[in-house]
Specification:
about 140 residues, alpha+beta, four-stranded antiparallel β-sheet, three-stranded antiparallel β-sheet, about 30% strand, elongated
Length: about 140
């Protein structure tokens, strides 16, 4: 059985999370260094670090927790309800590309709209497996 549910923006989410964690680490080191001083306002650095983590999840919630479901019908992007759904016979091409220096797949629809998915082996396998019934889409275009 092929896995068909994925987090849509996993690579981008992990990239931004790593940047936030580096900043939090730097702020935490600053807090540790501030303990040695008489006038200790290092708690401000801890508040900033906690705020960065909270803002990451609040601002990024919509993108972090989107899921992609690839099945016999097509490709569906969901949060709690369906955001976008592409039926296989409406998909004109699947191309390799990059988004923010992360490998991605660009999926183009008949009406000109497109979605981007992380280029992971499991997503590529699922697209190739479920799209075989579609005569318009023969393979993923490698650039």
């Amino acid at each position: 059985m092929i896995k068909n549910k994925f987090y849509k923006n996993l690579f981008q989410s992990l990239s931004f999370l790593s940047i936030v964690m580096i900043l939090v680490f730097i702020l935490f080191v600053g807090f540790i260094c501030s303990i040695n001083y008489e006038n200790n306002n290092g708690w401000i650095l801890l508040v900033i670090a906690a705020s960065l983590v909270v803002f990451y999840f609040i601002i990024g919630f919509y993108w972090i927790f989107q899921k992609v479901i690839i099945n016999e019908e097509g490709i569906e992007i969901r949060l709690k309800k369906t955001i976008i759904k592409y039926v296989w016979n409406e998909i004109t091409s699947v191309e390799e590309t990059t988004i923010m220096k992360n490998p991605a797949l660009r999926i183009k629809n008949i009406n000109g709209s497109e979605i981007h998915l992380d280029k992971r082996k499991s997503i590529v396998r699922a697209i190739e497996y479920y799209s075989k019934a579609n005569s318009n889409l023969t393979k993923i275009d490698r650039q």
